[in-house]
Amino acid sequence: MTISAGHFTPDRAEDIAARDMAECREAIRTGSLSFHAASRLLPTAVRDPSLALYAFCRLADDAVDEGDDKIGAVLQLRDRLDLVYQGRPRDAAADRAFARVVEAFDMPRALPEALLEGFAWDAVGRRYDTLSGVLDYSARVAAAVGAMMCVLMRVRDADALARACDLGLAMQLTNIARDVGEDARAGRVYLPLDWLAEHGVGVDAFLADPKPDAGVRAVTRRLLDHADRLYARSEAGVPRLPFACRPGILAARHVYAGIGGRVRAAGYDSVTQRARTGRGAKLGWLALALLRAGTTAIGPVPSVLHAGAAPEVDFLVQAARGTPRKARSEALLSVLAQLEARDRGIA
């Protein structure tokens, strides 16, 4: 695939077609209100490719999460990624737009394949014994997107990438805390199993009859507490980003943290209700992001900026920095083979 070294300029004929871009915007506007709001503060040269990236990821996530054939959806996503990296994307707006992003920004294949691996874990119904396991999953389905966003901003500094991955982890932990009840009713649990056991929550009983008892609330609180630490640590990387990109990234940080705040305000009950943020709140967080981006209050604390990547996301940092990788990881190949076997009915 020929890689363009030039900057992404949406008005050039070889960039994302206007119709494809319009479909990507609509997919995000209706499917990811929080990111759509934050993206409005990004410069066009980053916003349009980021919307294309999110549209591809979001539609793939919906196919796996909401479809009846989760295994088939993951295998189809594998094939779609193969076609994108061959320069022959499927005839669909999100695929064509993402293929252009891959070409224009020399997107390391290991990053979207990390997302593919996370979706594959969903398809096999994997559960996570510890917080580290939850972070392993979050690295794939969220921090990988954070690393890809850095690539779109043409930032491949290790410290900035590590902090971007912190933000992705925090956002996914917030999503998990918000969706405890919704996931349980679908037979899924993403909370650390050892925390649930520690607080006297039996997983099978909870899935059979989801209730926001004291143990579930305590685990939800602990997850949000860890997310808050990651949000705080992520801010040290913001000054390493292009100045024009900082408001959009800070907006994403505040909007998603605000969702966690809604869960807290509900007494950590995300079983009987789902935390939502209104238009007014989002506008307030966008204004806060603009204000903070123009001040020195977010200046990096060196010990935090240079803290290194969390172990669960180090492979993403290395991939985004361009560390050579000859082939797909053995872990990804293994889970894909498992899905292939299930799809053929032999496992």
Main features:
347 residues; mainly alpha; Farnesyl Diphosphate Synthase; 17 helices; geranylgeranyl diphosphate synthase activity; Trans_IPPS_bact-type; Squalene/phytoene_synthase_CS; squalene synthase [NAD(P)H] activity
Please tell me how large the radius of gyration is: 19 Å
Q: What is the subunit organization of this protein?
A: single chain
Tally of DSSP β-strands: 0
Q: Which CATH class is shown?
A: Mainly Alpha
SSE class: mainly alpha
Major sheet summary line? none
CATH superfamily: Farnesyl Diphosphate Synthase
SSE pattern: HHHHHHHHHHHHHHHHH
In DSSP terms (H or I, runs of 4 or more residues), the helix count works out at 17
List the helices and strands and how they pair.
Blueprint: H1 18-31, H2 33-39, H3 44-66, H4 70-85, H5 93-105, H6 110-123, H7 131-152, H8 158-178, H9 180-185, H10 193-198, H11 203-208, H12 214-234, H13 246-265, H14 279-293, H15 302-305, H16 314-320, H17 330-343
Helix pairs in contact: 1-2, 1-3, 1-5, 2-13, 3-4, 3-5, 3-6, 3-7, 4-6, 4-17, 6-7, 6-17, 7-8, 8-12, 8-13, 8-16, 12-13, 13-14
Q: Could you characterize what this model shows?
A:
The protein has helices at residues 18-31, 33-39, 44-66, 70-85, 93-105, 110-123, 131-152, 158-178, 180-185, 193-198, 203-208, 214-234, 246-265, 279-293, 302-305, 314-320, 330-343. With 347 residues, the protein is mainly α. It is globular, with a radius of gyration of 19 Å. The model is unreliable at 1-14 (pLDDT under 50).
